[in-house]
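ESCALATION

Customer reports they have been waiting on this structure for their group meeting. Please prioritize. Original submission:
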Amino acid sequence: MPCPPQLAKTAFELTRRQVLRYGAAATLGLAGFAPTKPAQAFVAPPRTRLRLIGEARLPHRLQFQGTTVGGLSGIDYDEASGLYYLLSDDGSNINPARFYTARLPFETDRLGELTLTGMTALRQADGSTYPAALRGIQVPDPEAIRWRGASQTLLWTSEGHALTGAAPALRESRADGTLVREFALPAMFDFHLTQGPRINLALEGLALSPDGSRAWIAMEGPLRQDGQPPTVQAAGGPCRFTQLDLASGQVVRQIAYVPDAIPHAPVAPATHANNGVSEILMLDADRMLVLERAYIAGHDALTGNSLRLYLIDTREGTDTLNIPALQPGAYQPAAKLLLADFSTFTGPGPGSRLAHLDNTEGMSWGPRLPNGNRSLHFISDDNFNPRQITQWLAFEFFD
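Update from on-call: job pushed to the front of the queue and completed.
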């Protein structure tokens, strides 16, 4: 979860507790193919679009069951219980690594009140909670979460911690937070000076196949050997998406995905800007939604964060699992189709727009609407910073 230096996570005073919510109807149409490196042909599905249902927010540094709520980087939904699972990326610095459960009733055109219902600490193999970065090598940096209904367990990713040597990880935990297992990942994901992930650009996304048998993990940015991160001028190197068979725990396939160039330049004298993959979600057995999130310093609360939703077919593109370095011409990335640019959402009034887009990192399906369409939900990571917000956006998804 990249954030500019001035937005580093520190302790802040608790602000006035309030929940803001509103309902609005808006539509985003298909925007067309995004310019990327040459890729295999992609057959477009029927017209796909999103309609905004509404927005909900949690108060900054809300206190709940002895913890400070914030840094919500992952979200998933359990249809059987009606609960959402929300993963905090607090690496045990404020409170032990944890996830929350929540309920959010909504109608076709409005959201109800967002309510937290529980908090669960994630635990290591010996049953203890995870230590903070300065107290142990197994420090986690939780980023994405998925509920496995068949096993009643949770999959979650950790970006790892380069300074302590804690490698990026995919873990499975029970609903009470106890550890079931940690998956063996390719050595390419280990931190090194000249190879492997960059700090804060490691495992960010996690998707589960509809039958629950396989999972995809997604890098936020390119490995060092695969190229540079995006700039305002260029798309940069590819992110690796890796598929695992959950029964055997084996890695079975990997594809490359090229994020966009940074949408626009920072406003001087600011210089910080980035773009990368913040989450992935399976649309069906083969098609995947990919959320790209950019931050550009010096802009207002809307234009400083860019969110774009893409569609890819995971059957397309070169299997990159055994390619040590992804040099141009040595592989074919998955083609990407732009479904939505969040900057074009309109708000409740004629000609108005959403007043704020934040550091959105979580994406999940929710309950079906009365007309049979699925709801699609996004949540933002406020970095525990008072200038940011925990923002929940809900949409109707047309396929």
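Sent to customer with the following note: The chain has one domain: 29-398.
Escalation resolved.
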